[in-house]
Write a structure and sequence with these properties.
Helix 2 runs parallel beside helix 4 (89-99) and helix 8 (181-194) runs parallel beside helix 11 (244-261). By secondary structure, the chain is α/β, with parallel strands linked by helices. The longest helix has 18 residues, at 244-261. An 8-stranded mixed beta sheet has the order 1-2-5-6-7-8-9-12, covered by helices on one side. The protein has 11 helices and 12 strands. Strand 8 (166-173), helix 8 (181-194) and strand 9 form a beta-alpha-beta unit. It has one domain (6-205, 245-288): TIM Barrel (Alpha-Beta Barrel). Helix content is 35%, strand content 16%. Bound molecules: iron/sulfur cluster. Iron/sulfur cluster (SF4) binds next to loops.
Length: 294
C-alpha cells in the first residue's frame, strides 16, 4: 500500500531551506490550473482528483508518524480545489490530524479554507496563502481557476481575526508580469494590514512545460523569457533560474516592504541566506504554528 504521509522531499534541491516536515496531498492534479505551476511536470496539468482510500491510508500512516514534525498540506496540489466543497477530504484529514495533536501548515490559494476555521482555530495550525498579484484580471489570466486575490485578502483578514496565524507566499514573481516594485510593495502592505505575520517570496523558475503555457498566454514576453532564462540564466536541479542579480532585484521590493511592516520574511529556493533575504525562524512559515494541543 502506498504511503500518503511522506517526509517532505525537495528532490535533494540544495537551495531548499525548508525545515524537516511531512508532506500530505489529499488530491492529485490541481484544478486551479496556474500557468506557471511547477508541480504539473510531476503530476500533470490536470484537474484535481481525490486520492483513493485517502483517509484509511492516512490513519495507518499516522500511527507511526512523529508529532514533532509539521504536516504540510499540500506542496504540489492545492488542498482546497472547488470539489473539496463537496468531498471534504481535506477537512476530514484536518480533523484527524488536529485531534491527534499534529502540527499542520496549510498551503493554499483558496478562500475555501475559511470553511474549516472551526478546526483550525482550536488546533495547531497555520495557513500559508499565496497571492501573486492584486490585479484581478492578471490573476485570472495566470491562475484561471483559483479564487481572485480579493477573496484571498478577505480570507487572510478573517483567519487572523480568528487567531489563526497566516503567512503569505508571493510566489512566483515573474519578470515583466507581476514584478512592478510599487505593486509588490502595495501587496505586502495590504497583507500586513490584514494581519499576515510572515512573507515568503520567490522568483519564477522555469520548467519547459510551464514556460510553454506562459509563453502561449503572454506571447509578447516569450522571446525575452527565453533569453533571460535559457541564455543568461542557470539550470539548477531541473529548473531554469534567472540570473542572480535579476532575482535579487525582483525580490527586493517585497523584502524592503516586509522590513518596513516589521513582519518576518524569507525567500524560497533562491540560495540567498543572509539576513537581507531570510529573516525568520523558518522560510515556509511553519514557525507560526501555535502549540495549543500537545
Ligand atoms: S495552486 Fe499550486 S499546485 Fe495548483 S495549479 Fe496552482 S501552482 Fe499548481
Amino acid at each position: 500500500m502506498p504511503h500518503y504521509l511522506r517526509l517532505f522531499d525537495p528532490w535533494k534541491n540544495p537551495l531548499c531551506t525548508c525545515p524537516p516536515k511531512y508532506s500530505l496531498q489529499p488530491y492529485t492534479g490541481c484544478s486551479h490550473k496556474c500557468l506557471y505551476c511547477y508541480a504539473s511536470s510531476y503530476i500533470g496539468y490536470r484537474d484535481s482528483l481525490p486520492k483513493k482510500d485517502f483517509i484509511k491510508k492516512l490513519l495507518r500512516d499516522l500511527r507511526k508518524a512523529d508529532k514533532n514534525l509539521p504536516v504540510s498540506i499540500s506542496n504540489s496540489s492545492d488542498p482546497y480545489p472547488p470539489m473539496e466543497k463537496e468531498i471534504k477530504l481535506t477537512r476530514q484529514a484536518l480533523k484527524l490530524l488536529l485531534n491527534l495533536g499534529f502540527k499542520v501548515l496549510i498551503v493554499t490559494k483558496s478562500n475555501l479554507v475559511l470553511r474549516d476555521v472551526d478546526l483550525l482555530s482550536s488546533g495547531n495550525a497555520s495557513i500559508s496563502l499565496t497571492i501573486t498579484t492584486l490585479n484581478e484580471a492578471l490573476a485570472k489570466r495566470m491562475e484561471p481557476h483559483a479564487p481572485p486575490p480579493s477573496a484571498r485578502l478577505t480570507a487572510i483578514k478573517k483567519l487572523c481575526e480568528e487567531g489563526i496565524p497566516v503567512s503569505v507566499r508571493i510566489d512566483p514573481i515573474i519578470p515583466g508580469i507581476n514584478d512592478d516594485p510599487a505593486e509588490l510593495e502595495e501587496l505586502v502592505s495590504r497583507v500586513a494590514d490584514k494581519g499576515a505575520l510572515h512573507i515568503v517570496a520567490s522568483t519564477y523558475k522555469v520548467k519547459l512545460d510551464n514556460l510553454g503555457r506562459m509563453s502561449r498566454a503572454f506571447p509578447e514576453k516569450a522571446v525575452e523569457w527565453r533569453k533571460l532564462y535559457l541564455k543568461y540564466g542557470a539550470r539548477i536541479k531541473g529548473y531554469w533560474y534567472l540570473p542572480e542579480r535579476l532575482r535579487k532585484r525582483l525580490l527586493e521590493p517585497v523584502l524592503k516592504q516586509a522590513r518596513k511592516e516589521r513582519i518576518s520574511y524569507a525567500v524560497c529556493r533562491e540560495g540567498f541566506r543572509s539576513k537581507d533575504f531570510f529573516n525568520a525562524p523558518s522560510c515556509d512559515g511553519s514557525h507560526l504554528i501555535p502549540l495549543r494541543i500537545l
